[in-house]
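In this supplementary section we document a worked example of the pipeline. Step one takes a protein sequence of length 500 as its only input; no multiple sequence alignment statistics are reported here. Step two produces a three-dimensional model, which step three serialises into structure tokens for compact storage. The input and output of this example are shown verbatim.
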Amino acid sequence: MQKRYCAIWFRYLLTDWLAIRKPELKDVPFVLAASEKNRIIIKAANQLAEKQGIIPGSTAADAKAVIPDLKVFDFIPGKAEKLLAAIGEWCIRYTPLIAVDAPDGLLLDISGCTHLWGGEKGYLQEILKRLKGKGYYVRGAIADTIGAAWAIARFGKEKAIIEPGGQTEALLKLPPAALRLDTAAVDRLHKLGFYTVQQFIGIKRSALRRRFGEQLLLRIDEALGTAAEHLQWIHPLHPYQERLPCLEPIQTATGIEIAIRNLLETLCNRLKSEGKGLRVAILRCYRVDGKLVGADIATGRPSCSVDHLFKLFALKIASIEPALGIELFTLEAPKVEDLMIDQEILWTPEGCGLESPQLAELLDKLANKIGAKNIQRYLPVESYWPERAYKPSLSLSETTTGKWRAGRPRPSLLLKKPERIEVTSLLPDNPPMLFIYKGEKHIIRKAEDAERIEPEWWLTQSPHRDYYLVEDEQGRRYWVFRSGHYDDADSQWYIHGFFA
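The serialised model returned by step three reads:
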């Protein structure tokens, strides 16, 4: 596919942005300035101020002498880059590959995108019309190379769309600055009488290199397309991503559902053909008003089931606010894994175990509804100490060689760290008669014999624990223990768990 690029130039980016926020500034000259070496230097000027001779780099005092009623506002460092990134996010409806060209432009890879707007002319007109409608003064151009598109957008005076292969001819009449050279190189070219690209582009490369360095040759090669140029995209193109532009903005829940299902069908077909399933899916909805809304889902095991994934998204459709309408949907799967082949296990207990797809889908529904962090699966760990005898599982397919202790019962809720309690008991080794926990007194009616648990001597020197399963007057059951022997100086009682 022939590569085509679009360059967009915001000549008055920051001042246009301020005028949009403060409409009263639309018809008055103003500048943005910052303090430098005890002087107030102008960083940006709006179109009205520029027409009266005010340019960036001059001092605010000199500008005031020219325009007494000139308004001066603070320049915000880094604002241009943030603003361009935000506008670039909005432009993703036109192409997935957009790069910020600081301090005043955007670069778009539009290969294969323009046919949706009837061709390159309609494509460029649509983008510029929308941006101008928002209040920005913009120029744009389309060419085979980034350098040529950049040059035509800023210095071109004839046509904005350069036919494939026509970048060399289009650059000849432009000034040296159109090659994105630094100020020193441009001044040196001017001093030697080179005021257009045509005047020096035919000179031997060795002579240009000796006089101007390698940078000039690189910029020429990039503009002509003989050297590759790489950009840092706002959203790098993900290998598993689908886009769905809309001819008319979508405003209804039904329309959103149809869009999600169409995207899922396309994406899942790709995944299934490669033997993969998604673990995470992110839906982004680009609204007409420039806002971005969306939803994301996660699965416990790789899945490419359209019906299952759609049900997960259906739980979140109510949170997607279309406002004036959604004009572009994107769906990407940033995390995919090899798809496990399901085998039917008939007439065995394993048929309803952890390998059951129905169980995995049920857990996915619950996780996307109440939050994955509220659902936990634990695996046994080889340890006698209760709080070290388990670990959280990362997925349903994770296994361990450890086994759950099948002797005395364990509480359904185990505290991560035992908590101190006050106990009254008969000595020497009787279970508690009562205990006080968080200010509440619990009188014990039933208790089982003690279970002594010793720690691993190679891990800790902590004293042993004597655990008791006790039941209070209200039938509530607890797991409490005494640390060490009853006659030890540092012996204490603790509560460690609650039985259902």
